[in-house]
Design goal:
Belongs to the MoeA family. Keywords: Magnesium, Metal-binding, Molybdenum, Molybdenum cofactor biosynthesis, Transferase. By secondary structure, this protein is an alpha/beta fold. It is 17% helix and 30% strand. The protein has four domains: 164 residues, Molybdenum Cofactor Biosythetic Enzyme, Chain A (3-Layer(aba) Sandwich), CATH 3.40.980.10; 56 residues, Alpha-Beta Complex (Molybdopterin biosynthesis moea protein, domain 2), CATH 3.90.105.10; 88 residues, Molybdopterin biosynthesis moea protein, domain 3 (Molybdopterin biosynthesis moeA protein, domain 3, Beta Complex), CATH 2.170.190; 73 residues, Beta-clip, CATH 2.40.340.10. The protein is elongated, with a radius of gyration of 31 Å. The two termini are 35 Å apart. It binds ligand LQZAQKY5 and molybdate ion (MOO).
Length: 408
């Protein structure tokens, strides 16, 4: 079975659905999609309070105050933020007040401390404040009963600020998908261990767990399972309890030990199409278990696994989180390098792209081979070459998929 990239992505997006929303503590909701309208139960400010450190006064007492004509008032008390005192400002008196402290009854204005001698028994004031000067009035920011956030808003720091300020400790939001990442292959060893003959470090499970986290998911990196069919199937069934989505790598091409494909094909719920792309040709996608958890079986070549994530898994995760657009947007740019591209396959070429006065410019990095991982760290974009283009010259217009993420 041979599919285009778009057909495969459609098949994937047609199968995954948005996760149901539930109540979450505020800090767990950062980056998530809000699934309720938020109506404030309180006014902001909640009470009239001082905008300055200074003195709460009756403005009329200070008519004509100036450097030449200072006016002294007795200080009858002190108001601090967080404390409420039963003191009243009567004509001819004042209260020392700190920023955020409630306005005392009787006062209609605040004199900043800079306009005074800072006295604590009596204070000498050299400027007349307007009525309402340096006073923050109850409800001037947000009135109780007003909608402060609309559903379908992604919660970033500014939205979290408003939620906390109106006293919300929890909100209904679409959760982060829990993504289980498993790498398969008898040649794989954990980074940090010693390599024997023919062995390599498992980079894919780290790459893909990092990708999943970067896309906003919770990643569980299970690590390496060798090419034993029973161990692979046991691991999958053990992991399903905590998975909203599973990613495996390796074992999906034509080799004698490509066990993932062999075993999962038997279930009948996972397809293994060849997708007309380079890298990333051997793909697998379907569902497993009673809960029909989506599973991606990505190719083992490290760059193929990474690009497959960007092209197929990331959009699926975004759909599960209810976050549009699902696909990365493409921007126009110019390639500074020429290269050839396979006929009939969409090529994704690693590139370092910069944006300047002339728009986006991209240089290729790291070579074309899907095992060439060394240059990947310098790439921040993929040049997307259409299926019908076989040759790209330096200076050609191209489309770029920019790879920035939550942490990128
Ligand atoms: N006869 C054919 N051979 C291959 C074909 C084909 O169509 N016919 N397709 C090639 C393509 S394209 C790809 S991509 C790979 C996909 O292979 P598998 O998904 O079966 O992956 P493996 O064979 O297990 O490994 C491929 C390669 O990647 C290395 N690898 C695997 N896992 C990891 C890991 N976790 N970390 C780092 N590197 C990993 C592995 O050692 C192999 O070198 O098949 C081609 N062959
Ligand atoms: O498609 Mo493979 O993913 O080219 O290396």
């Amino acid at each position: 079975m041979r599919r285009s990239v778009d057909e495969h992505l459609e098949a994937v997006l047609g199968r995954v659905t948005a996760l149901p929303a539930f109540d979450q503590p505020l800090m767990d909701a950062v980056g998530l999609m809000l699934c309720e309208d938020i109506v404030s139960g309180v006014s902001l400010p909640g009470f009239d309070n001082s905008a300055m450190d200074g003195y709460a006064v009756q403005a009329a007492d200070l008519a004509g105050a100036s450097d030449e004509n200072p006016i002294s008032l007795p200080v009858v008390g002190e108001f601090r933020a967080g404390r409420s005192e039963p003191i009243v400002v009567t004509p001819g008196t004042c209260v020392r007040i700190m920023t955020g402290a409630p306005m005392p009854r009787g006062a209609d204005s605040v004199v900043p401390v800079e306009w005074t001698d800072g006295g604590t028994v009596t204070v000498r004031i050299t400027q007349q404040p307007p009525v309402g000067g340096s006073v923050r009035y109850a409800g001037e920011d947000v009135t109780a009963g007003v909608q402060v956030l609309d559903r379908d808003t992604v919660l970033g720091p500014r939205q979290i600020a408003v939620l906390a300020a109106v006293g919300r400790a929890r909100v209904k939001a679409r959760p982060r998908p829990r993504v289980v990442v498993i790498s398969t292959g008898a040649e794989l060893r954990e980074p940090g261990s010693r390599l024997g003959d023919g062995q390599i470090y498992d980079s894919n499970s780290y790459t893909l767990a990092a990708c999943a986290r970067d896309a906003g998911a919770v990643a569980y990196r299970v690590g390496i399972v060798d090419d034993d069919p029973k161990r692979i199937m046991d691991t999958l069934s053990d992991q399903l309890v905590r998975a909203d989505l599973v990613i495996t790598t390796g074992g999906v091409s034509m080799g004698a030990y490509d066990i993932v494909k062999e075993e999962l094909s038997k279930l009948g719920t996972v397809d293994f199409p060849q997708v007309a792309m380079q890298p990333g040709k051997p793909q697998g996608f379907g569902v497993i278990g009673d809960d029909e958890v989506p599973i991606f079986t990505l190719p083992g070549n490290p760059v193929s696994a990474y690009i497959s994530f960007e092209v197929f898994v990331r959009p699926a995760l975004r759909k599960m989180m209810g976050q549009m657009p699902y696909r990365r947007t493409l921007v126009p740019g110019v390639t500074l390098d020429g290269f050839s591209s396979p006929a009939g396959r969409r090529q994704f070429v690693r590139a370092a792209a910069t944006s300047g006065d002339e728009g986006w410019m991209a240089s290729t990095v790291g070579g074309h081979g899907s095992h060439l991982l060394g240059g990947l760290s310098r790439a921040n974009a993929l040049i997307v070459v259409p299926e019908d283009v076989t040759s790209v010259r330096s200076g050609d217009q191209v489309e770029l998929m920019l790879l920035g993420g939550e942490t990128g």
